[in-house]
Amino acid sequence: MHRTRGKVVGVALVIAATGLLAACGDSDSTASSTPTLTTSSTSAAAASAATSSAPGESAQPQTPAPAPETAAPAPAPETATVAPERPQPVPTNEVPQDTSGLSDKDRKFLDSLKAQGIAPASPDIALSIATYVCQGVAAGASEADLSTFVTAMAGSDPSFDPSKMPVETAGKIYIDTAEQTYCQ
To answer: What is the separation of C-alpha 107 from the centre of its chain, rounded to a whole number of angstroms?
Structure first.
């Protein structure tokens, strides 16, 4: 008897759910109008008109009144093709470099870089790269690994000018110069 009662309750629930879903609307799934932005008074009027229709009547879609224009829309910005900005290299002859606290090894490394056409924006940048190269060599890093990071660091120097030499060449110069003058 419990089984029969459970089946009857289950069937009754399925029928009730189907009836509720069918009462929610017809089977038309297409949109009948395009949604628009309305002011709060227009949407309130549309909502009250929809709720005041008789229960047996089908509510007709109502088109909201256009919102009054208060100001002219702003003109669209002009779209012009603009080349991306690149930072300009810092002229090395205008940047005073304090070399008073540098060791002879530091000066030798910086002078060697300068002789090969590299003038870093500050000695700290070049010496950081040299220290990285020496640590990488001591740790047994491959030439490819060193080159990847040193090239990135050399290219990020504000005074680096890619029109004078490729960044890969600058990275190679940093590595070779550090190995010859700084890592010893």
So the answer is: 41
**CA–CA gap between residue 23 and residue 19 (Å, rounded):** 6
77: left (phi over 0), alpha (psi -120 to 50) or beta: beta
Contact 36, 64 (CB under 8 A): yes
Q: How far apart are CA 52 and CA 60, in angstroms?
A: 12
- 139/37 Cα distance (integer angstroms): 65
**In this structure, is the dihedral angle defined by the CA atoms of residues 113, 114, 116 and 122, taken in order, positive or negative?**
positive
CB 66, CB 34: distance < 8 Å: no
d(Cα 35, Cα 46) in Å, to the nearest integer? 13
- Residues 131-156 have pLDDT tens digits of 999 999 999 999 999 999 999 999 99
Q: What are phi and psi of 69, to 5 degrees?
A: -85, 130
Nearest Cα neighbor of 161 from 115, 95, 117 is: 117
Tell whether pTM > 0.70: no
How is residue 99 written in tokens? 């070399």
